[in-house]
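Reply to dn_fold:

You asked what the input looked like. This is it:
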Amino acid sequence: MAAPVRQGDGTVSDPGGTGTTSGPIVADVGFGTYPRPSGGHLLIGSTVPDCDPGEWLDDPDECNPHPTPARFETQVTRAARRFPLLGVPNRPAGIAGVVVDLGAFSRRRPLAEGGASRTVMG
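and this is what came back:
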């Protein structure tokens, strides 16, 4: 079984001011983000690039449901480089949760983080 990883999405205002609730999801694997409309805002998620360290969890029940300031700033800044009107808010907003299966890509948990044989999808 894969080790649980904390994954978060930042929430930012819709730069167009339209408050759209639907539209395309555009994944930018070069910057490791994807923006998608959600409830009149944009969620900025991560495509889990190799350059981002995993936030490994020993106890999934202890996961903080709010985005960390560092991860929020990283994800939103990357998206804002592609979409300059997006901007980067000073206060992080969004959601976070626990993910075990992140899709078709696999990455090993570093030995320094206690991952001798754990494989994480990501």
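The longest strand covers residues 5-13.
Hope that clears it up.
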